[in-house]
Amino acid sequence: MKKLKATAVAPSNIAFIKYWGKKDEILRLPENGSVSVSLSNLLTKTTVEFSSEYQTDKIIINKAEDKKEARRVINHLDRIRDLAHINEKSKVVSSNNFPASSGLASSASGFAALTLAATKATGLSLTEKELSVLARIGSGSACRSIPNGIVEWKEGKDSDTSYAFSIFPPHHWAIGIIVAIVKGEKKEVGSTDGMKLVNTSPFFKERLLNIEWKIKKIKQLIKEKNFPLFGELLEAEALELHAITLTTRPAIIYWQPGTIKVMKLVQKARSEGLLGYFTIDAGPHVYIICEKKNVSGLVKRLRGIEEVRNIIVNEPGEGARIVEEHLF
Ligand code: PMV
Q1: φ, ψ for residue 244 (rounded to 5)?
Q2: Which residues line ligand 1 (CB under 6 A)?
Q3: Once rounded to an integer, what is the mean pLDDT over residues 258-271?
Q4: DSSP bridge pairs for 325
Q5: How far, in Å, CA of 188 to CA of 190, rounded?
Q6: Which of 19, 34, 24, 9 has its CA nearest to residue 165?
Q7: β-strand partners of 181
Q8: Residue whose CA lies nearest to ligand 1 atom number 4
Q9: Which of 151, 165, 91, 166 has the alpha carbon at shortest distance from 121?
Q10: What's the rounded mean pLDDT across residues 67-95?
């Protein structure tokens, strides 16, 4: 029998303009478009094998078998089996090069790697757009982990028009993305549940009114490499996302004490001429974007914060790709 096996690596991504809220829960169609960057050093590697020898799907993520995670993965494999017209069960082994419990959008890199490896293993040969659409149905922001560099996700009108594509290659801009992993309990409310609450925030409608302008503006500032204005917009956008989560009912507070310490550190460093700006997803960790020449200065300051558990330095990276070396 032909071997239906393939391995892919995919990056995590951090959004400059955020996706928060869906207009279709099942298809994961977002309320608004978003812009992100693929991260060079936060990667998921996944091997998928389909075989008639397997009686059930076996899903191993970071050396463990988790029933809830497995269900979402198997649902995604079913979509791919339908597309490829195969029935074989599979073995999936996936591992992150960053701590699993750190809540660093592992679902984005995870579903991007799974989508590419599983489609390749079945012999399907999808375009980047088709891969992005499929990854989106698995986990929204995963669609942005398929293309290279700086990426835009158009919200689209339907499933086929809601996908991400590269707007600038990784080398377009010499920026660093420093991830400060902050101490604290595991994230309380996942993004799927958090997003369901958006319409209970009095500010959500207002946010949607300005989002197209913001996307246009940030793309222009990236093109011009206008770092200070880009950074101001980035930071304002992150705080706006949290203004929404803080004002839904029930409210969600994603920050930990260390989160606020890092935000303050970034603003203080800036007032002293060391330029960096922060962004934060639905979790406590802080992503600091700076020009490359300022990475070491900012990392040095971050080391002085006791609540910072780990520091991971990234640059804009490549999207999902097939690799030869399998995990099993
Ligand atoms: O696709 P999800 O469920 O990982 O949601 C991502 C939501 C944010 O990370 C908060 C924002 C974003 O655009 O990535």
Answers
A1: -70, -50
A2: 15, 18-20, 34, 105, 107-108, 139-141, 191-192, 281-282
A3: 98
A4: none
A5: 7
A6: 34
A7: 310
A8: 141
A9: 91
A10: 95
Q: Residue 225 and residue 24: Cα distance in Å, rounded?
A: 35
- What is the pLDDT, as a whole number, of residue 98? 85
Place of tokens 């319409």: 199
Q: How far apart are CA 35 and CA 280, in angstroms?
A: 14
Predicted confidence at residue 276, as pLDDT, reads: 98
Return the number of other C-beta atoms located less than 10 Å from residue 2's C-beta. 5
Give pTM, 2 decimals.
0.96
Q: What is the pLDDT of residues 153-188, one digit of tens each?
A: 999 999 999 999 999 999 999 999 999 999 987 757
116 forms bridges with which residues in the sheet? none
Mutate to test the pocket of ligand 1, among 192, 242, 281, 287 (most ligand atoms within 8 A of CB): 281
Nearest atom (ligand 1) to Cα of 142: 1
Q: How far apart are CA 126 and CA 80, in angstroms?
A: 11
- What is the band of 130 on the pLDDT scale with cuts at 50, 70, 90? very high
Distance (angstroms) between ligand 1 centre and the Cα of 212 equals: 18
Match 């017209």 to its residue by tokens: 85
Look up tokens 């800036």; give the residue.
270
pLDDT at 30: 98
Which among 43, 37, 40, 241 is positioned nearest to 152, based on CA atoms? 37
pLDDT tens sequence across 32-51: 999 999 999 999 999 999 99
* Location of structure tokens 């946010």: 207
Cα distances (Å, whole numbers) of residue 116 to 212, 217, 274:
30, 32, 40
